[in-house]
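Entry 14. Structure prediction run on the chain below.
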Amino acid sequence: MNSMKTKTISALVFLVSGLVASGADELTTKAREVFKKHHPSVVTVQLVVKSRFGFAGAGGDARESKQEVTGTVIDGSGLTVLSLSSTDPTALLQGMMGAFGGDGEESMKLKMDSELSDIKLLCNDGSELPAEIVLRDKDLDLAFVRPKTKPSSPLPSLDLANSAKVDVLDEVVAINRLGKVASRVHSASIERINAIVQRPKLFYVPDGDKTSTGLGCPAFTFDGKVVGIFVLRAVKSGGGGGLFGAQGGITGILLPAEDVKKVASQAPAVKEEQK
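Output returned:
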């Protein structure tokens, strides 16, 4: 009798394990399909940034650097959304820190500003398209860039209208484009939604574990609907308690596609010479 029970339990464990493995394989297959369909819309945006740091009345230090960030093409004209923080890190620091030394003298306030002297979209076919920023939204940490001249053919783009909402503990498929050291290939990862913030505006808080997902990356449900774009959310310091103060903070969030679409609708129309 004991032998029969043991065999029955073993059979049940084997059956359950097989069902779990089958379910995981199915999700993996769906994630690959999402990746294959949507990765062409994810591009590298190359920036030349001139940054200046200093104290009021005491001059400053100017530096120029070239950096690459991830952007998502949302229109065939090449209109591309990315995190504003990735284009202007000094603005993020200035907003978070306020004045160096708190409420001290004006001369002690740290001045930071930056300027983009060159922007290029590095497309998947190896071509480079000179571009420019056409719209910024500091509150939502969004920047939109568009090629200066119309592409010879429409670029692969993401339809933000084909969107979906997700719930706590849901998993989403994120698509990134890696850096030059990895030949700028596309990568995919599965991210889990840890929390949902409803006010003052809906956004999702992803798992904080380190992955290849970066700012400007899109995220999708397993049936291929876009959930949103990864950006930063910053709250100004309330004073005291360290760098960000008692109430300050910064975190990566997943901004719903619906909000990105609303802001994108404000982008200037394509110039006549671009048509």
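The helical segments are 2-38, 84-87, 89-97, 257-264.
Filed with the rest of this week's runs.
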